[in-house]
Amino acid sequence: MTVQNSSEQKAAVRRQIKDQRKKISPGEKEEWDKALCKNFFQLYEKTTEQKPWLLDSPVYLYLDICGEAGSSRILDELWRRKIRTAVPRVEGQELRFYEISRREHLISGYMKILEPDVSAGLSLAERPDSLVLVPGIAFDWKGFRLGYGGGFYDRFFNREPDHLRWGLSYLFQIFQSIPHQIWDQQMDGLITPTGSFIIKRPTEKSLE
User: Fold this and answer.
1) Phi, psi of 35, deg, nearest 5
2) Which SS3 state, helix, strand or coil, does residue 6 take?
3) β 164-168/189-192 pair status
4) How many CB atoms lie within 10 A of CB 35?
5) I want to staple 98 with a disulfide (CB 3.0 to 4.6 A). Which of 12, 17, 116, 205 is the partner?
6) In this structure, what is the dihedral angle of CA atoms 33, 35, 36, 42, given to the nearest 10 degrees?
7) What is the pLDDT along the chain (208 residues), one digit of tens a residue?
8) pTM of the model
9) Strands 164-168 and 106-108
């Protein structure tokens, strides 16, 4: 696959998924987001039994917009369980995660997405081995992710490669295979409204 063809295919998938997200009814989104929350915590509880150090780390997660797979219920439940959380802020070309403990810590930021208000004295999350919930336009069963094209999460994981990475996705966003290049970062798992799936990510990626 050439880079040009890959770019064209990525653009087509982005258009397709954005159109489908606009068609989600409020009732469907509420039902799917409840199931995502349930499936996230089932996998989180199993994973922390095997990786107990995650209990001492904040969960890094995005704040969903525009029909994305919903993270708000997960955030609220993490707080209810007294689990620390961190959300991203765009700083130049990089993502930095800051710990927050209530919604008053958020302000409108990059592309009008809610971001941590650093003027409130929030702490930078600096655990290199935390769990990160990752948004995406689309995912495939090998864990490859198609984002919005800014490369923020790819750069973040290139800078901090030891995080556990789970994609949060509705079923229509998952493809058998999506176009990718060598620099695209893979997920370790996918969480959907119907279940959670662990992906064995190779140490060194190959496009063969």
Assistant:
1) -70, -40
2) helix
3) parallel
4) 18
5) 116
6) 150
7) 333 457 888 899 999 999 999 999 999 999 999 999 999 999 999 999 999 999 999 999 999 999 999 999 999 999 999 999 999 999 999 999 999 999 999 999 888 889 999 998 999 999 999 999 999 999 999 999 999 989 999 999 999 999 999 999 999 999 999 988 887 889 999 999 999 999 976 654 332 2
8) 0.91
9) unpaired
Token reading at 193 = 């409204």
Distance CA 172, CA 151 (A): 22
Please name the residue that has the structure tokens 């295979």.
Answer: 177
For the chain, what is the largest distance between any 2 Cα atoms, rounded to a whole number of angstroms?
Answer: 48
String of b and e for 80-116 (b: at least 16 CB within 10 Å)? eeebbbbbbbeeeeebbbbbbeeeebbeebeeebbbb
pLDDT tens for 149-199 read: 899 999 999 999 999 999 999 999 999 999 888 878 899 999 999 999 999
DSSP of 113-163, one letter per residue? -EEE-GGG-PPBP--TT-EEEE--SEEETTSBEE--SS-HHHHHHHHSTTS
User: If you search the block for the tokens 């995406």, which residue do you land on?
Assistant: 136
Q: DSSP 3-state helix, strand, coil percentages of the chain (rounded to 5)? A: 40, 25, 40
